[in-house]
Every structure is written in structure tokens, then in C-alpha cells.
Amino acid sequence: MKFFIIIFILILISPANANTILYLIKIPNLEIYSNKSDNGLKYLQATKPFEVGIRNNNVSCFNSSEKLLEKKFIIIENNLNRYSSDFLDNINLKYIVLCERLSVAEIQAAGVPNNKVKTLIVNITFNEEYFERVLHHEVFHMINEAHKHLFLDSEWISLNNSDFKYAQCSTCSDRLSLSLRKKKDGFITEYAMSTPSEDMAEVFSFLITNNMKIDNISKEDPILKKKISYIKKNILKIDKNFNF
Amino acid sequence: MIKKIKRTLSEKILLIFILTLGIATFSSFFIIKNKCLFVKNYNPEKINFEFPENIAILNTNCGNVIIQLYPNISPNSVSRFKMLINNDEYNNIAFHRVIKNVLVQAGDLEFGKKNNLNYTYIGTGKSGYGAINSELNTKFDFKKGTVGLARTDKINTEDSQFFILLQDAPLFKEEYTPVGKVIYGLDVIKKIKHSAKSEYVLRPDFINYFKLLR
After folding, report:
1. Are residues B13 and B29 in the same domain?
2. Does the beta-carbon distance from A116 to B199 stay under 8 Å?
3. Using the 8-state DSSP alphabet, how is residue B145 labeled?
4. B2 falls within a domain
């Protein structure tokens, strides 16, 4: 009897068989959650924990309960339905992977975009307070990756005060807060001060989720105002009908 | 004088049991070794096809795989596929990527040729005829048995490599170019050598020949 229990346990912990989803988007242990979205997005859920990544499988994420998935899927789909299928085609986004406790190099992450395989991994257990906004933040990274020529770091940096310097990477500093800043010096959150790309993503995410608020703040913040118009101008180059 | 001792009944039963066991072991050795034993080999000459001009026969160690091509769905890709088949380009080419019960992939004309296999680069080879544009179809469902053209991470990079699905793949819709479907002999494909540890197969099985019915 013990022998059969051991065999059964070995079967359970052995690596899952590959499937056609792995063939397509290079992430193991996924299955379709929903592929009926109006804008053509396909939602996939992790059935087991997975590890992927170019260096030492540095991206890891865990499967989640059906109940949590159900709750978060409604929020995620509602938010991502703001993007038309044409726009999503244009930014190379087709697959949304839903999982929990997503981390990159053991640092918690809200999402991991991968333009090459048209995929955005979403951490459904990310901070509730910012959850909806960070979805759009991550979408911006997909936009940026697909249209690098439109969102140039050099142009963006020139919008700031000349004495400001970004960090070397998004997690290289302790500027990680996603809360709205009170100071009016061109940065909407502390995290926006980390890198030009994160700064752009923060502005974009506020434009999508709280357009009025960011517009009001920018009335007293000329740098932020320039940043908003930079993002809007270039997004409209991708899709002239884009609705902020 | 040696006295002959009669076998008891239990000795006789034991002898019969050992003999039976020996015969069973001997025959099962051959049965297990012959992986094609219970695979039906279809003879295309004995089947009536509605569109014989679009029937291709892929022959492997276990027999024939009969594929119906779809020129109406992917005209350029089927035309390329037919050209490669007619030129015998696929003969002796490896099934280099085999995922058990998921799909098999073959058609690397550069690095997958029998007697000239290159394990380092297999799967990245080209045909020499250049890449062709993807023909993505919004209505075509990738069901078990579908034959599609493989590509790199980018679209419009289809060349000579193709895959055959062993399970439905709903996400392949609008991602890959379908060229046909296996109508007979999917069991033959299931017998192609795979590796439990990797998608890429060491000492793989080969396409013996690939030809058009007409």
C-alpha cells in the first residue's frame, strides 16, 4: 500500500505535461479561463505554480482559488475592455495570464509584460488599493515595448527639471510608493521617480483611471502637464480614436 | 538399476506454469518491441477521396498518414507545402519536436535530414525557398489532427516546418496557418518517438516519404 502511495505522490509532483499553450506562449501549467472577450483578449489561469524567465527562471507565480479568480476576473476584464481589439493588435497584447503572488527575482510584481509572446502576466493578489490602476500601468509597458520609437527616454527626461535624475532601474531605489504625491514637481507618485518608463506608465495609468484628477493636478504642475500631453499625443499616434 | 519416479500432479502443474510463463515472456518481448503492432496502416489506393488532388500521404515507420490539404483556406501556404512535397524535400526528414499527445513537428530541411542531423540547430533550419506570409484565419478551429505551418515568434516567417496536432488547440486560431487535416492514420502519428524529458528528440523518427496522391 505504501508503495502505491509513493507512486501516486510521485505522479502528482512530476512536471506537468506540456500543452499547446506552452508551445504558443512559453509558460507552463496554464489553461484557458475565458476566451470570449469582446476585444479578443484570451484569459488564462495558472493550474499549478510556474517559473519562467530568461535568467534562472526568475519570474514565478502561483495558481489561485476559483473564488478569487472569479472576483478578480470581473475587475480585470472590465478594465481591459476599455481597449479595442485594433488597439490591442497594435500593441501586441492578446493573452492575459491570471495568477497570484507574482514575483520577479523574488521581488513582488503587479504584472510582467512580454511583448514577444503577446502576453501580460497579472498578479491578482496585488495591493487592492492600486489594483485597477496598475493593470493600465502594465498595459502601458506593452504599448511602450511595441512602440519604442514613440516614447523616448531622452525626450521624456528633458521634460523634467534639469537637476532630477532617475534611478538605474525600477527597483534600484526606495521610491516604490504608488500613492499620489502632494508635492507638485512633475511626478504623480514616488514610483514615477524610479525610471522614465515607470514614470510614463504612471501618467498613463492615471489618465485611464482618473483623468479628471490628473488634469486638475496638472493645472498647478507645468511639468506634469507637459508629460500628460506627451503621452496623449503619442497614444493618439497609435490609435487616433483612443478615448482617454 | 535406476527406478523411474513418476511426476506428481503439482509438479506437472508447476512445469506447465513455467512453460506458459516462458512463452508469454518471449512473445511479449516482440510485441512490446514492435510499437506499430496494433496500428492500422491505411492504403490510400483503396479509399475514395472527394478531392484526390488535395490528398497527401506521409509515410513513417508505422504506416501512412493521409492528409487532406486546404487550398481554399490557405492558398499560398498549401501551394508552398505541395511544392516541397512534390520536390521530395520532406523525405528522410526528422520529427524533431514531439510533445506526447499534444503535437509533432517536422520539416527542418536544413538541420533535420537523416544522416546529417544537427542536434544543436535542429528546429531553426530553413528550406532555402524563403519565408512566406502567414495566412491566419478568423474562422478556422485548430482541432485534433490539424496540420499547420510552424513559424518563429513572429508572423510571416512560415517556411517548411509543420506540425500535426494530437489535441484541440483553441488558442492556435489566428496564430498559425492551417494547411490541412489528418483524415486517416492519426494513430500512426501517436507512435512517433518522443522523449519524456524534452520536446526535442534524440535519435528521432523520420518521414520515410511524403507524396501527393495525384
Report:
1. yes
2. no
3. T
4. no
Per-residue pLDDT of B186-211, as tens digits, reads 999 999 999 988 889 999 999 999 99
The number of CA neighbours under 13 Å toward the Cβ of B52 is: 8
ipTM for the complex shown: 0.72
What residues make up the domain containing B16? 8-38
- Please count the structural domains in chain B: 2
Do B67 and B146 fall into the same domain? yes
Q: Could you tell me if residue B123 is inside a domain?
A: yes
Under DSSP, is residue A28 helix (H, G, I), strand (E, B) or coil?
coil
Contacts with A179 (C-beta within 8 Å, 6 or more apart), sequence order: A189, A190
Which pTM does this prediction carry? 0.81
Does B13 share its domain with B59?
A: no
Q: Is the pLDDT of residue A7 over 50?
A: no
Find the DSSP H helices in A20-150: 20-25, 66-80, 85-90, 131-146
Do B166 and B100 reside in the same domain of the chain?
yes
Q: Which positions in chain A touch B101 (Cβ < 8 Å)? A: 17
CA distance A228 to A212: 12
Domain check: are B49 and B112 in the same one?
A: yes
A contact set with B (CB within 8 A): 17-21, 23-24, 32, 35, 42, 95, 116-117
